[in-house]
Each structure stands twice: as structure tokens, then as C-alpha cells.
Sequence to fold (395 residues):
Amino acid sequence: MSGLKVASHPSIPSNRDILVCIFQRGAADGLNSLVPYGDLNYTELRDNISVPPQDIIDIDGFYGLHPALAPLKPIYDAGDLCFVHATGMPHENRSHFAAQDLVERGVDSKEGLPSSGWLDRYLSLKPAETGSSFRAISISGNVPVALQGSSGALAISNLGEFNFEQEIIDLGYPDVLSKLYRSVIPFSGPAQDALLALEELQQIDLLDNTSYPEGPLGDKLRQTGQLIKSSLPVEVVCLDSDGWDHHERLPEFINASLDELAQGLSAFYTDMGTEMSRITVLVYTEFGRRLAKNASQGVDHGTAGLAYLMGGGVNGFIQDVKSGIFSDWPGLPTLLDIQTLRDQDPFIEDLKITTDLRSVLSEMLVKRLATDPNDLSVIFPGFNGSITTDIFSSD
Fold:
């Protein structure tokens, strides 16, 4: 393929982290993930779907990890993992698709809905250091809403299969396509991007690492690790973690989901080694779940949830100094409160948002991704809330 010019691959600027975003599709339950067992109403509300006290991995005497998250405890103890509880965007929307769309666009209302995603706007405000197609990539068949816009993000579901078959190459079809799409014809832009990406991949080695757990998320994180360790100047990688809509049999299903998440993050952390000093991993969801169990031993759509942040730039646990958990805990009502006040306040059944997710993302963008604070109003239009100050370091 000689019709397109492949960009050189200098390193991304030293003042910017590589950002890996994992979206928990389906509204992940935070209460059975980072368990507020110190709130005495937790067990009453959840009864036989709560995490048994003897299984909780204690963090600070109030919060504890679900046992399936045990692989994350060493990362937490190293100070490279922190949690933000009772967080989310206050859109008050219980529809998965509508809520995901709002969160990925970085807004809490459909009024004046921006056409692009918050990550795309961040990238558009930063000059690209190279013409590489791999500046922003989704390990998926589709570009997520967060990356949609003018930044030209790439979507590839399997890096190892992103190529022409050898027979096609031998017949010269790639060169024909390169010449064809040099003209301004329909789809010429996306086609040129895809052809450039193909050529870039041909010129680098993707180191194989089989130490990742089997499963969709483990495979996506393995490919993310391959990209970061290659010479490609990747800055943003987006991944989906599916299957978090636990309306029934919560203990069984969330155990499997949390195990996949924890095993994948642990493998990625180990694989990256010292590179984690310049990587920030964000795990977030569209909304949380309700406080009390339903008739199917699950939990329905709620409001606030839990966000995970991993990397060398987070202000995580330090013995006798800080817990690595950031939360203005709103407190849980009693089951009687919920039953009594349900008609007056439909959100009495939900964990209340006390930290707007955009506050956390704003601090991350400024301190880890070298974003001008004046640009935050463009990235998160309409957001006038305060910005967190102590979740990230600026080193």
C-alpha cells in the first residue's frame, strides 16, 4: 500500500497521560462493589442480597471491597487505585440508552445537547502531535458517543484481524483502493483513515501477551496493552464492559461481572508495569442501582454509582494518611423511610449523587491531561459545579 503516507510516531507529550476509559454498560451497582458496610441500613435494605460481612475485604472500617474485587486490593495498597462513591451525572434519567448518551456527551440535560462527545471535545482542543489514525481508538465495532465528533477516532474490534487477507494483498487490491480513495468521493475520509490504520499496523509489532484472563474485557485490555507498548502514539482508548444490568439474582451475576473487571484490571496493571505512571484508567457507568432489593433478588435502575480510577497519577491509599476513597457519603435511609416516602419522593429509593462525575473528570483533564481550565466549559457545556481537588496529582 503506497498511496498513503504513514505518519511518524513520536511519543505523546510528557505532560499527558494515556487515558483508558472503561464504560460499564447496563448501570453497575456500586453498593455491592464498594460496600458501605459501616452504614447500618445497608444490610436491612439488601437483606439476603447484601455482601456477607465475613466476605467483605475491609478498606477503612466503613467501606470494603466485594470479594470478587480481591485482585484489586494489592493495587489499592500500592496507592495506585482509588474510588469515588455516590457519584454520577444528575440527569435523573432511568433509560440506559438515554442516560449513556447524556453521560458520554458530558451533560445532564437533553436541552442544547451537543453533537459531539466529551472525549472528542477534549481531543479537538489539543493539537495532535502526529497524523496517526491511532490517537484515539475504541476496541469495538463502533466509535462510542464519547469519541464521536471531529477528532477522527478509530474503532477496531480485533487488532489481530484488522488486515487484508494475503491473497488480496498479492492481487494488488490495497493499492487500488488507496488510489481510489485519494479522490474526494463519498466515504473517502473514513476509507483513507482505515487504509492508513492498516498500513500503520503493518509497520509495528504488537507484542502478544497471553497472561490476560479469557473473556471480552480481558481481551480488550490485552489489545489496549499491545497498543500502548507499540510505537503507535495512542492517547485515548475506550472499552465497553457489558452485562451490568442486574435486575435479578444480584449476588450471582455481580460476582461474575466484578471478577471479570478485577482480573482484567489486575492483568493490565501488571502488564504495564512502570508505564502505569503515565496511564490513567477510568471505570464509570451511566447510573447506579436502587438501594433496596426487588422481588427478583436484584436491584432496579437508580441514580448514584461508583467510579474507579487507576494509575500512577491518582492520590490513592497512604497508610495512616488517606484512604483512597473519595465520597461525601449521603447516608442510607431505612426500609421504612423508603416505604413511607416513596409516593412523595421517587428518588428516596436511590443513592443520592454527592459528587458530580464531571467534577472528577475535570480534575483529571487538568492535572493528568494538561487541559486548560478555561476549556472545561467547552468539554462540559452547562456545568458550573465545583471541581475536585485531591483525587489526582499533577506530577
Remarks:
- Residues 1-9, 168-174, 176-181, 183-189 have pLDDT under 50 and may be disordered.
- DSSP finds twelve helices and twelve strands in the chain.
- The longest helix spans residues 250-272.
- Residues 18-84+102-320+350-379 form one domain.
